[in-house]
Design a protein that fits this description.
- By secondary structure, the chain is mostly beta strands.
- Helices cover 0% and strands 39% of the residues.
- It is built from no helices and twelve strands.
- It has strands at residues 12-16, 25-29, 35-36, 41-44, 50-52, 63-65, 69-70, 77-81, 86-89, 91-92, 104-108, 113-119.
- The strands form four sheets. The protein has a five-stranded antiparallel sheet, with no helix packed on it.
């Protein structure tokens, strides 16, 4: 079975590596004024909660948001898939996904794309 990823398709959780359908989630506060959309990867925002994960350098995403929330820094929360066994379908911004790049690291450029970074 193959799946086509369109230019506007956000990342999707497509299942666990072990085939199970249940996955781990945690609820996090969303940083004040930040809008996290369903399908966005999130990271710690540095103040009280999570923010969108435009990952570069040593940053790591916590997981994928399972809802859309605009944070107020104190009460608005978002459910996040934090399961380390989860697999995601992500659109690449380059032709980086070739056999030569197996084992390479990739950065999340934004909610819809990733780009090649340093190799492992």
């Amino acid at each position: 079975m193959s799946q086509t990823v369109t230019a506007v398709q956000a990342p999707q959780a497509i299942g666990r590596l072990d085939g199970h359908t249940n996955y781990a989630t945690l609820e996090y506060l969303v940083e004040n004024g930040v809008t996290v959309n369903e399908g966005d990867f999130v990271k710690y925002g540095g103040t009280v909660g999570v923010t969108n994960a435009s990952m570069t350098g040593d940053s790591r995403p916590l997981g994928m948001a399972l809802g859309t929330v605009t944070g107020d820094g104190s009460t608005k929360t978002v459910l996040v898939c934090v399961d380390p066994m989860m697999r995601y379908l992500i659109k690449s911004s380059t032709t980086a996904f070739v056999a030569a790049n197996r084992g390479s690291y990739f950065d999340l450029a934004n909610a819809n794309q990733i780009s090649n970074s340093a190799s492992s």
